[in-house]
Amino acid sequence: MASIRPEKNRARVIPKHSAPVLPKRRAPKIPRRCASLLLMAFVPAFASIASAAEEPVTFTRDVLPILQGNCQDCHRPSGTNYGGMIAPMSLMTFDDARPWAKSIAQEVSSREMPPWDAAPIHNGEFSNERTLTDAQIETIQSWVRQGSRRGRTEDAPPPREFKTTGGWMIGEPDLIITMPEPYWVGDDVYDLYTGFPVDLTEEMLPDDVYIQAFQCKPGSKVIHHFNGHLLAPDEDGKLPPPPTKFESDALSPRGAGVYIGGVSSGTDANIYPDGYGLPLKKGTRVTFDIHYHKEPGEGTGVWDQSQIGFKFCKKPPRSALTGMGLFYFNINIAPGESDYKIGPVPRKTSRDLQIISLMPHMHTRGKAAKFEAFYPDGTSEVLLDVPNYDFSWQTVYYFEELKFVPKGTRIEYTSWYDNSPEYAAERGFDPAQRVKYGQKSSDEMMMGFVMAGPPIDGAEPPPETTGGFYE
Ligand code: HEC
Questions:
Q1: CB-count burial class (<10 Å; 0-12, 13-18, 19+) for 413
Q2: Which of 104, 174, 178, 240 has the greatest number of beta carbons closer than 10 A?
Q3: Which CATH number characterizes residue 371's domain?
Q4: Are 323 and 369 found together in one domain?
C-alpha cells in the first residue's frame, strides 16, 4: 500500500498575524493532519516577490470562484459541518479570506483542503468529490505569491447564496424527530456513547413511506458522531421492549436495527438519487446513536437535544435501498505494528444491484481502505481506493453514475492500519497499546458500508422489500 504522507508528522505553525482566534472545530482529542514544514519554508520566501512575467491573479476574478465552488460549503458562517465540526473560518469574502491567504496556499498545495481521501484515479466518479485541479492550486499559489490582491469589484461573481432552512442541509424535512428529553452531558464527560430510542407513533407517521433524504442534526457542539438506526415492527406491528441500557462497546446500540448513516466531520447529507428510496415503515423505532466527546472540566457540561429529519419520496420510488456492512471484529494490532492488514471481507450479491454509495470506516490507526468487485465473468474492478485514509473525515462516497454490479458479483473490502510511533505522533494515539475492536477512537474498527438497490429498468416495478440482496 502507498505509505502515508510523511510531511504530516510536523507541528502546525500558523503565522500569528494570520490567525484570528476562532473556536476549535472538533473534539480536541483527535488531531488534525498538519501542514507541510517544507511548504511553510518556501511559501513565505516567495510571497512578496511577484514574477514580472506572471499573469496577474486577483481575488475577485480568479480566486473567489474557486472558493465558492470548493470551500464555502463548509467555510461560511454556519457551514454544513455541524455539531462542533464547523470549519474554523469563513471564506466568503476578500476580507474573510485575506488573513488566511498563506494558510490557504499551504492547505491546498498539500491537498489537505478541500478534504477528500479517495485516490486520484476516482476523480470524476463521485458526485460529492471535493478536489482542486492543478491549475486551480496554481492560481491560488500565484495569488499569494503576488501579494494576495483584491482586484476589481466588478470582476467578482455574484456571492453564492445558501438557503437558510434552519440548519437542514436536505431542505425542510417532512418529519422531524426530536430526542424526547434534553440530555445532560456532564462536566466529567470525555467520551460517552449512548442511544435514544423513539418509537414512531401513528400521529408522527400514519403510513409506510420511503426516505429520499435524511439528516442527523446535532443539538450541541459536543457531538463527535451521531448515527441513525431503524428497527421496523414485526408482522403484528410489534417492537421488542426498548433497551434499558445502551452498552458502550456494542457495535451500535443493541437491537437498534439497521444502521442508515449519520453525521461526523466531513460528511455530506444523505440524499438518494431519483427513483431510489429507503423504506420507513410506520411504527418503526428510530434510534439516535450518539458519541459525545469533549474535554472534561468544571463548567464544560452542556445540554443536548438532537434531531433527525427525514424527507420522503414525493412519488413511490422504483427501487428500495438496503445498507450492507462488511465487518471484522477479531482485530488484534500489536504495539508498533506499522502495516496491519484486515481482509478482504467478501460478500456475494444474489441479484443485480446498483450501488449508490460506499463508506470505509476505521479509527485513528486506519491508513488505507479498498472496495473491489469481482464480476461473474471473471473480471474485477477497484470500486473505491482510499490510499491515505484520515479518521478526521468520515466521507460517504456517492457514485455520480450509479455502479451496476450483476448478480453473483463478489464485493470485497480490505483495510490497513498503522500502529507505529511515527503515525502515532501525527494522529495522536499511543503506539504502545495493543489495539482491539471497540467504539472508542483509541480502539479500532473494520467496517465497509455499501448502500445499494435493484436497478430501475424501463418498466415501473413495485419497490422491492428490503434485504435479500446478498447471499
Ligand atoms: C468538508 C468541509 C470543508 C471543505 C469543503 C473545506 N474545508 Fe477547509 N477546513 C474544514 C475544517 C473542518 C477545518 C478545520 C480542521 C482543523 O483544523 O482541524 C478546515 C481548515 C482549513 C484551513 C486551516 C485553518 C487553520 O486553522 O489553520 C484552511 C486554510 C482551509 N481549511 C482552507 C480551505 C480551502 C481553501 C478550501 C477549498 C479549496 C477548504 N478549506 C475546503 C472544512 C472544510
A1: buried
A2: 104
A3: 2.60.120.230
A4: yes
410-417, strands of its sheet edge to edge? 340-348, 410-417, 366-374, 380-386
Same domain, 349 and 409: yes
Q: Which three cell numbers stand for residue 172?
A: 425542510
325 lies in the same domain as 471: yes
Answer for the pair 189, 323: CB distance below 8 angstroms, yes or no.
no
- Ligand 1 atom index nearest CA of 268: 1
Q: Is the CB of 102 under 6 A from ligand 1?
A: no
> Cβ of 409: how many Cβ atoms within 10 Å?
22
Q: Is residue 1 a part of any domain in this protein?
A: no
Which ligand 1 atom sits nearest the alpha carbon of residue 79? Answer: 2
Q: Verify whether ligand 1 is closer than 6 Å to residue 385 (CB atom).
A: no
When comparing pLDDT for 377 and 5, which is higher?
377
Whether the CB of 402 sits within 6 Å of ligand 1: no
Nearest residue (by CA) to ligand 1, atom 11, is 87
Question: Which whole number is the average pLDDT over 330-359?
Answer: 96
CA of 132 relative to ligand 1 center, distance in Å? 13
Grid cell 500489536 is found at 334
- Whether residue 471 is contained in a domain is answered as yes
Amino acid at 64: L
292's CB contacts (< 8 A; 6+ apart) are: 185, 189, 191, 192, 193, 194, 222, 223, 224, 304
Model confidence pLDDT, tens digit, residues 84-125 = 346 788 999 999 999 999 999 999 999 999 999 999 999 999
Range of the domain at 417: 318-471
- Is residue 81 in contact with ligand 1, taking CB distance under 6 Å? yes
Is 92 near ligand 1, meaning CB less than 6 Å away?
no
> Could you give the C-alpha distances from 301 to 8, 22, 278, in angstroms and in order?
33, 20, 36
Round to whole Å and give the CA distance between 145 and 43: 8
Looking at the structure, tell me whether residues 363 and 254 fall in a common domain: no
In the block, residue with C-alpha cell 456571492:
159
